[in-house]
Amino acid sequence: MGTGFTETTRGMDGLTQDQGYGTDARQGCPFHDVRQKLRRVGLRPTRQRVSLGWLLFAKGDRHISAEMLYEEAMKARVPVSLATVYNTLHQFTQAGLLRELAIDGAKTFFDTDNSDHHHFVVDGEDKVIDIPASAVDVAELPPPPDGYEISRVDVVVRLRKVAG
Question: How much is the pTM?
Fold first, then answer.
């Protein structure tokens, strides 16, 4: 039985490897499914968007940086620049296909799981682990300023390896 946590790490080859604790990783998302997904959110399914979308979504729910996706694209011989990867990730985020998770202002991960959940982040590593929303108790939030409403609460819990 799974723990409900989904862990993403970078393997020895530099590519991400998901250990789907409690998840069903999808294998082989067909290109036509990616095209339909893009059309549903109002994005034109260009060759680059479809190729990057397939790389993103074919491996199930995971956390990935632009640099990690760029490495996967190069390995898969998808001809894109790092700037195109960044632009595509931001377009997918604005369209609601991804969640952006900013870490320390300098590191950003994109999460393919749009469900309500939170994250563990391992300091000093490219590792992000999902926390089910039910495992976090946000007892009371301050009222938002006039003219605003709370759209989402993101809890990031930082971890470090225990010395020993």
Answer: 0.73
